Request: fold
Amino acid sequence: MNTSDYVKIPKSFYEKEDVVKIARELLGKYIFTQIDGKLTGGMIVETEAYNGRMDRACHAYHKRTNRTEIMYQPGGVAYVYLCYGIHHLFNIVTNKSDFADAVLVRAIEPSLGIETMHERYGNHQHKVSNGPGKLSKALGITTRLNGSDLAGDKIFIAQHKSQKRPKIAASTRIGVDYAGEDALLPWRFYIENNKWVSKQRTPVI
DNA sequence: TCTAAGATGGGT
DNA sequence: CCCATCTTAGAA
Reply:
């Protein structure tokens, strides 16, 4: 890749207050990691928004604990947590200080370091990044990156010079049935017809 | 110190 | 549809 074709997203992008809008805007942008000397990355094709003040599905909903503390930081850092004891899920913290919002990145379309991603993922029968746990494994993201600056060297999000506006579809979020009515919010976004969007579970709406 | 649960993934 | 998974947050 020619790195001059990409520009890192500035902090101001993440510090806006509407996390749902940011979740949409992140589609079509790129995430890169440089871990263990290997550069890997791809285009974000699926996201979900989480709002700490009015969304029961958000880990930070009405609680500020060690785990959720990072979400209360100003936007532009990573929130990585372990799910089911195995999967490292990667989130982008948004909004200003003390407003705990985040965007879960659920799928990317690989574009750089594809061989490395396959090696890390291991299973050659499956796609390596069409799910939140899978893309983290392929990109080498673990909880060690919790709190990392998203304009840094280890991990960064960037925009391609000639990015075109993707066609966006919306649905309810995956796996948040415990959130009651908030599970019905149409806060999952994905690029229409993209092959790397995670396979749909429990079709709601 | 304990326990319960979880923003999944893969196989049938 | 079903279920293995196993660390850790959060409470006591």
Notes: The mean pLDDT of chain A is 94.
